[in-house]
Write a structure and sequence with these properties.
With 223 residues, the protein is an alpha/beta fold. The protein has a single domain, classed as Alpha-Beta Barrel (TIM Barrel), CATH 3.20.20.70. It is 33% helix and 18% strand. It contains 8 helices and 8 strands. The protein has an 8-stranded parallel sheet with strand order 1-8-7-6-5-4-3-2. The protein is globular and about 45 Å long.
Amino acid sequence: MKLAPSILAADLADLSGTIALCEEGDADLIHFDVMDGHFVPNLTFGAPVLAAMAKRTSLPIDVHLMVTESALYLDEILDAGAAWVTVHWEAANHLDRVVEHIRAGGAKTGVALNPATPVSVLHDILPRLDHVLLMSVNPGFGGQGFIPYVLDKARQLRAMIAEQGLEVAIEVDGGIGPDTIGPAAAAGMDTFVAGSAIFGQPNPVAAMRTLRDLAETSRVTPL
């Protein structure tokens, strides 16, 4: 089980403080959303911010590319220190090439699916992935509610992974909090992105520990 606090929900004027909270709360990853204002209707961070953060923490940085032309950003994201890189199936015209580019750059390789995209599209590429990110909200903004049918997608994906004899993590992003992390873990998800449920709370460190405990209690697959 891995917890990946999303800095999108944190105090953006104090990213050093955010990193310190993640470290104190025993986060496994720091989730870093890159949005281009085209693939999703929002703009966020780029490689210079990523590089600055990577110099200040030993925690792996989990970069989620919500951009139309993901291939154009890969080299600078990898050079800036991304440990995990996830691209969207919906935005990658040449997914196999993009996946190999990430792997050659030394990062954990993942593909994200929007809520309405079926997991079956990943059948052939699945053996080349380290993780799959299931969006449980429509991407672009934090603070949205969890879409329940994504739980069924997680069960389907977990069955696909088992059928092929693979070790692929299932990450979930969107609406994860105390009420949803348990059902998500029970459905086979094992890597949890949480933003408002951590940084919107009076004590983010305590919130991280609560989420971890709830996931560990409910999880069905070891990681």
